[in-house]
Amino acid sequence: MAEQDYRGTRIFLSVVAVLLAIGGLFMIFSNKGLLMRMFMGPPPGEVSTLMLFMTKEFGGVMLLLSALLWFASRDPLRNVAILDAFVIGFCVLAVTPLISRAQLPIRDIYPDSLVWGRSVIRLIMAGVFYWLRPRSAA
């Protein structure tokens, strides 16, 4: 049986891996002024040292995810579990901001439309990852 070509999946995974790597490096090397501009000018007390620390930690996690996607792009057929994990991860990430919106006073500094928009975009990304996922030839 002929091997299927997953060129579209490889290109998509490579592009997302590069974007995650750029975002991770951006987060690691950011400072308080940059984060205040990025979050649309919140009160200075909202951007704490703990938030900066956690942003840099999350930048490292993004670099880890970027490496996973980069290696998965080399052979998508053997790395279907990584793609499945990203589908599940995007679904979880679509729900968590909505839970935070309901439990925290985030409406004062972050518009509801952006919270809902991010959740919809994450569900779309989960759908794209699921659609590009290699199917087993049973």
Describe the structure.
With 138 residues, this protein is an all-alpha fold. The protein has one domain. 72% of the residues lie in helices and 0% in strands. It contains five helices and no strands. Helix 1 packs antiparallel against helix 3 and helix 4 runs antiparallel to helix 5. The longest helix has 26 residues, at 49-74. The two termini are 12 Å apart.
Summarize the entry for a quick read:
This protein is mostly helical and 138 residues long. Helix content is 72%, strand content 0%. Helix 1 (7-28) runs antiparallel to helix 3.
Output the keywords.
0% strand, 138 residues, 5 helices, mainly alpha
H-E order: HHHHH
Unreliable parts: none
Residues in helix, %: over 70%
- The figure for the number of domains is 1
Strand proportion, as a percent range, falls in under 5%
What's the arrangement of secondary structure elements?
Layout: H1 7-28, H2 32-38, H3 49-74, H4 80-103, H5 112-132
